Amino acid sequence: MKKIYIERILSGLFIPLSLVFFLQSKALADECINCHRELDDELKVPAEAFQMDVHQKFGLNCTTCHGGNAEEGDIDVAKDKSFKGVPLRKDIPEFCGSCHSNSLYMRKFNPNLRFDQLELYWTSQHGQLLKTGDTKAAVCTDCHGIHGILEPSHPKSWVFPWNVPATCGHCHSNKEYMKDYSISVSQTEDYKQSVHAKALLEKKDLSAPVCNDCHGNHGAAPPEVTSIGFVCRQCHPSAGELFSESPHKAAYDELGISECEACHGNHKILPPSDEMLGTGEGAVCIECHDPESEAYKIATTIKDELDDFKSKMLNAENKLERADKQGVEVSDAKFRLQEAHTALIQVRNLTHSFSLDKIEEKIKEGTNIIAEVSEAGDSALREATFRKRGLIIATFFIFLLAIALLFKIKQIEKKIPQ
Amino acid sequence: MRNLTQKIFVYLDSRLMLSKIGEFAQKKKVPEHKHSFWYYFGGICLFLFIIQVITGILLLLYYKPTMDSAYESIQFIMSQVKFGWLIRSVHSWTANILIGAIFIHMFSAFFIKAYRPPRDLTWITGFFLLLIFMAFGFSGYLLPWNELSFFATRVGTDIAGTLPLIGKTLKTFILGGPDVSGATITRFFWLHIAILPFFTLVFLGLHILLVQILGMSKPIGLSEAKVREVPFFPNFILKDALGWMLILTLVGILCVFFPWELGKKADIFATTPLGIKPEWYFTFMFTTLKLVPAHFLFVEGEMLAIFGFLIGGLIWLLVPYLDRKAGMEKKSPGFSLLGLIVLLYIIIMTALTYLYPNL
Amino acid sequence: MKRRTFTNLFLGGSLAGTIGSFLYPVIRYLLPPKQSEAGVASITAAKSGELAPNTSKIFKFGSTPGILVNTPEGELRAFVAICTHLTCTVVYESDSESLFCPCHNGRFDLSGNVISGPPPAPLEALEVKIVGEDIIVSKKS
Fold first, then answer.
1. Measuring CA to CA, which residue among A314, A321, A320, A319 is closest to residue A341?
2. What are phi and psi of B83, to 5 degrees?
């Protein structure tokens, strides 16, 4: 009797149990991951890193790239005929490109994604070097990672804007690695001191340019000397336009000097200072212009007028500060001063035109505003003095009254002897 | 001329009993002894309060109690309105000086045991006046709608919200909503210019009336030889006036050399700046709450502290009935000690807030 | 003159002086100032007809700059003129019919939305009302 029940129970359980086992086996189908997870060091890394990989999110697994049979636990069986193993460095672009350049395939996952990366890559400096057999040149995995590849929009991705300098710098700052190439290894260090790096890395302004914004992503190459100006113009159109209309454009083109770079540098673009103007120490004008030239005179005039403007503005600012400290309300005047500041920024921008007329016009505009502000400052200072005088007068009367009271009190107390 | 004055006097007297009031005023006397200096502080509080009423009414002419205009209207008063800077700075400075004077007045009355019956009602009305004036300070502080006042209000009402049972309802009622907003300005303005003045009228009226009826309290056990009485009119009141003149001068100097600042306009979406604290007269409670350990046995530390203050306040209120000795005209050093401890506590806690702001 | 009379006169005189020095500021305070009321929940930015279509005007809105644009279709629009990138003041470009920030090439359409460049958010729009001859700009409720 009992035996029958046991049989029935067991057979009854058979179907659900086998279903469970079947499902389990499906869930455990990634034998690659299961096995590699048990290994050490560099063999373990792919299994762990892949958990966060963007490809995994789209349902792809080890076999999608490496081939083989993910359902087999036995190494020899798993590494069947389709197994591709670890690709050689020189083959990696084609390896990745086998999917990423196939638009019909890619649009199943993300129709938006570009598929010309491989094509661009071959035009790049890295691609050109790789074609010659130099495997030191960067390939896809050097920038994007190997197994834990994140979307470029993910803040931890190696190619997220604020990580890019470190990614490029990994090779380009390595003196040993770069010793066979005739380019400098200081770009990353230089960039980190630049105003762009400060904006990106400190202020977290993602619109600030980083290596790929000027050099390109997959088609990375240093811009030719004549095109540097165009590159900077992408974000600095005003300065670029003014420069193009100035006499410097033709001169620079003839001499083969790159536009913006000549004065501002390429990687170590520091915040520009007014000392770059004129003919004093730190000025860039005197690098080309002789003291007897017309240009020298114009440069001196521009600097002098700018300095004069700044000192007038500082003067007005000081007046407002003094009045503010003395408690007079000057926020309206301070607002107007903001407009003078804007004029100053515009004057500095106009220096790219090297046109004394344009600069003087803007300075005049600013000077008028400053005159207004200065007037407001004077009036505020007068108000501060008026208040002090008023206090003295009121205190004088109160004082008199206090003395009068004292007299009266004395008088009354005399009258009423205690 | 004299005839006319006489005629006016007779007219008013027959209707308002002016001569009777005059008689009473002539008879009113103030004891003079080594501690009578402290008697001036009641009058000082009244004087400062009158300044607040006058400057407050003037500010009302230009102030706009909405989120969009409150800050701007204060800026307008400070910059465009003639002497607006003076009226506003006087109002802000005097508010603080007044509360300081109230504390001095309260503690001097405490140490002189002026609360003993029959002056217990004077003490009780005085206690409520303290609460009313702290509410005046709290509500008025928000009205300029600047960064400091916005966050100080938020912190203060957050603490009120932690009271068990009534906390949440109380906080919502005070704020006019779940958080500090335009509705809060309206409510605080309502409190500041209508509700609190009304209650002040009631309680201050009672308080002053009681002082007139009961006269000034003398220290316990002071021998008759050491006390002499001076008439209130004109002796005492002239000395009162002298004190008031000095205070006016002080306020004037403060307003010209240390005008009350405008601050930055409140941004309801901004994060709380570091080191935010309420006005100085709340800081002793604020620092207590910061210093109290998170848990004491099984009770939350903050809750314990809040209850401590509530119980403490209750004891302070009922001191006339607790101090039996004083009630029997006997010296009660125990209560003097209690007063001293409370005073020192308030002073130390207030000082700590400013000496060690990062507690 | 008797001592007493002197004292009384002195008292009366200085009392009058003190009261005068208090009444003077109060009376000046009560007289309305030139700018009749506090700035700015709303402000008169311009007069009707002052702006031709496809032109703009910068005006002061509280303590921030505002820009009033008369679109090519003749509609009046107003914005807080502060670029949402790095707070430079935007200008109206009539040939592209857009609001442009000259600092880093940010561009906004006439609804304030970002068309191109680095700005992360649209321009704050303001409400425009025409009351008689005045164009009144106020904060959006």
1. A314
2. 65, 15
Which residue in chain B has the smallest CA separation from A391?
B252
Taking the C-alpha atoms of residue C78 and residue A112, their distance in angstroms, rounded to an integer, is 36
**CA–CA separation, A33 and A42 (whole Å):** 13
Query: In terms of C-beta density within 10 A (0-12 exposed, 13-18 middle, 19 or more buried), how is residue B197 classed?
Result: middle
- Are B130 and B317 contacting, i.e. CB atoms less than 8 angstroms apart? no
Question: How many domains does one find in chain B?
Answer: 1
Question: Above 90 in pLDDT, residue A281?
Answer: no
Whether the CB of C25 is below 8 Å from some CB of chain B: the reply is yes
Question: CA geometry: angle at B265 spanning B262 and B268, to 5°?
Answer: 145
CB atoms within 10 A of CB B65: 19
What CATH number does the domain containing B255 carry? 1.20.810.10
Which residues lie below 8 Å from residue A218, measured CB to CB, with a gap of 6+?
A116, A117, A118, A120, A121, A124
CA A403, CA A408: separation in Å to the nearest integer? 9
Residues of chain A with pLDDT > 70, as a percent, come to 93
| pLDDT: which is higher, B28 or B141 | B141
**What 3-state DSSP class applies to A102?**
coil
**Bridge partners of residue C106, in order along the sequence:** C101
What is the distance between the alpha carbons of residues C95 and A77, in angstroms, rounded to a whole number? 69
Q: Could you tell me which chains touch chain B, where touching means 3 or more CB pairs under 8 A? A: A, C
What count of other Cβ atoms lies within 10 Å of the Cβ of residue B114? 25
Task: Count CB pairs under 8 A between chains A and B.
Answer: 58
Please state, as a whole number, how many other Cβ atoms lie within 10 Å of the Cβ of residue A271. Answer: 7
More confident residue, C117 or B95: B95
Average pLDDT over residues C57-86: 87
What would the DSSP string read from start to end of B187-227?
HHHHIIIIIHHHHHHHHHHHHHHHHHHH-PPPPTT--GGG-
**Residue B259 domain-assigned?**
yes
**Residue range(s) defining the domain that contains residue B149:** 34-217+230-355
| Domain edges within chain A | 119-219, 223-270, 294-388
Task: Estimate to the nearest angstrom the gap between the alpha carbon of B122 and the chain centroid.
Answer: 15
| A191/A165 Cα distance (integer angstroms) | 8
Check residue C39 and report its DSSP letter: -
Residue C129 parent element (H or E): strand C125-131
Q: Is C26 helix (H, G, I), strand (E, B) or coil?
A: helix
Token pair in block for residue A292: 């007897």
Q: B78: nearest CA in chain A?
A: A329
Asked whether this complex has an ipTM greater than 0.95, the answer is no
Q: Cβ–Cβ contacts within 10 Å for residue A69, how many?
A: 18
Q: pTM for the complete prediction?
A: 0.74
Quick check: is B3 in a domain?
no
Q: For residue C4, which residues of chain A lie inside 8 Å, CB to CB? A: 411
CA B160 to chain centre: 20
Beta strands C125-131 and C134-138 are antiparallel
B82 vs C35: CB contact, 8 Å cut-off?
no
Interchain CB contact of B253 with A (< 8 Å) = yes
Here the tokens at position B332 are 């009660």
Domain assignment present for B136:
yes
Query: CA-to-CA distance for A299 and A297, rounded, in angstroms?
Result: 5
What is the distance between the alpha carbons of residues C101 and B98, in angstroms, rounded to a whole number?
52
Q: pLDDT band for position A418 (50/70/90)?
A: very low
Asked whether residue B224 is domain-assigned, the answer is no
DSSP string, A179-236: TTSSS-S-HHHHHHTSHHHIIIIIS--TTS--HHHHH-STT--PPPGGGHHHHHHTT-
Touching A (3+ Cβ pairs <8 A), the chains are B, C
